[in-house]
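Cross-check.
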Amino acid sequence: MKKDKQRNSLFLLIIVMIASYFLYFIVVNTSKSEKKEVGDTLETQFLKEVIYLEKSPNDQEHGLDLSSMNSTMLHEIMLDVKQTIVQDTGLSQADLGTLFKQYHQKLKEKAHYTSELIKEQKKMKEYKIQVYGMDLSTFLKQLKLEVQKSKEVKIEDKAGYLHQLFSRQIETISVKKDPVILNLKFKKNNKKWQIDSNQFSVLNIYLGFYAGESNLLALKGMMDGLEF
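Predicted model, tokenized:
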């Protein structure tokens, strides 16, 4: 029972770290990240502005519109998830924010992708994306070893220890060797390009970058294979 609770807590922590920025972009649509040049293709603009959370200097040129993405359901789920994490781990909202910023920086440094335009019409484009994202599975296996070592030591500040443990492991995280392959669709509406993949498909692209998994079920299956 205790092992299940620990495993579920880690699973929820990873989910909230990924989904928090997904929700943040849709609701706030702003970023303090340093601006970088983007290419002239829709998938490059989308992946850098949304996944990497950067603003394109060429917004008018591209005219990419994400307003059709509905975040209500995800927002409701996130409230419950965050509350569960606080109760199970003792980590605060500030802790979660700090850890994610560190994880996100490593993502920007290490993750990469390739793309191929596989279908194009006058008002529609579809890309095949190969994402070489963060190797979350290896990351958690290393974390598991550290957790096991900690059982031999008395820990007074559980939340502080967990924060430091995650932080150390994030510094050494690697990119997954096998890519996650996903499709990304766009449509043109009133002279503006809109994302034509639903919000769950977009979340799967996030999971490819942030967790090296193709969907939530794959991520949960990977987590279930770990016993802390």
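The CA atoms of residues 217 and 223 lie 10 Å apart. The two ends are 11 Å apart (CA to CA). Passed to J.P. for a second look.
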